[in-house]
Design brief:
There is one protein chain. This protein has a single domain (about 1-235), classed as Alpha-Beta Barrel (TIM Barrel). The chain contains 8 helices and 8 strands, in the order βαβαβαβαβαβαβαβα. It is globular, with a radius of gyration of 16 Å. Helices cover about 35% and strands about 15% of the residues. Helix 4 links the parallel strand 4 (about 100-105) and strand 5. The protein is of the alpha/beta class. The protein has an 8-stranded parallel beta sheet with strand order 7-6-5-4-3-2-1-8.
């Protein structure tokens, strides 16, 4: 499965094609799915371009993308940088009137189980974000939600092209065998393409998009998310 990650915590200043509004999410999602993406992950943005869990903004983003890419699962983030603490993030999740298909929870962040519980109560699937260089893998494996997630996002934070694959290997070792959900392995910036190639070679799910990288494998600036999806599929 190839997921497209449309924007992440990036700002428009980082890429002119970065989608930040519901209409832009819809257009980017449609183009990415037409290019071959099989899943969608996005970060709803407030009027200042910052990530938000505001129920009205989440509803607008999810509704727009579902209309543009019917039948494709849509996910959002619940990252700790969005609000002051896990209690507030959980409360915002519980206030959602329109819910995504799934949402990512980063297990190295405090309160992961609390946020995951709020998602489960709303009927939202959980993507377990496990970052390299953190204790996320150990915390996740001891969590009551370890067997109740839709997938595990193995997120390689090493941005160096030469060392990112080795870091990915270490992260997969930390996760261990016997996981109850599929693993989606991906990197970021300079490590994005080497880790994607590794994921393809291992037969793992992966993702690509302007959240993770702004250039194609040959270093050319990417025009948009669809261009990155096409480049990823060309590596299969």
């Amino acid at each position: 499965m190839l997921q497209v990650c449309l924007n992440g915590p990036r700002r428009r200043e980082q890429h002119p094609g970065l989608p930040v509004s519901p209409a832009e999410f819809a257009a980017a999602a449609r183009a990415a799915v037409e290019a071959g993406a099989e899943g969608i992950h996005l970060h709803p943005k407030d009027r200042k371009g910052a990530d938000t869990l505001d129920p009205a903004i989440v509803a607008e983003a999810v509704t727009a993308v579902r209309a543009a890419a019917p039948g494709i699962a849509v996910g959002v983030t619940t990252g700790a940088w969005i609000t002051a603490g896990p209690e507030e993030r959980a409360a915002l999740v519980r206030s959602w009137a329109v819910v995504p298909d799934h949402a990512s929870v980063n297990w190295h962040e405090d309160g992961a189980d609390l946020v995951a519980g709020a998602l489960r109560d709303k009927g939202v699937g959980i993507e377990a974000g496990i970052f390299s260089g953190t204790d996320g893998a150990a915390r996740f494996r001891s969590s009551p939600f370890a067997g109740r997630v839709v997938r595990v996002l193995a997120e390689v934070t090493d941005r160096a092209p030469r060392t990112a694959p080795a870091t990915a290997e270490g992260l997969l070792r930390d996760l261990g065998d016997g996981l109850a959900a599929p693993v989606l392995l991906h990197g970021s910036d300079g490590g994005a393409w080497p880790v994607l190639r590794m994921a393809v070679g291992l037969g793992l799910d992966t993702r690509i998009g302007l959240e993770d990288v702004l250039h194609t494998p040959d270093g050319t600036p990417a025009a948009d998310n669809a261009a990155l999806v096409r480049a990823a599929l060309a590596l299969r």
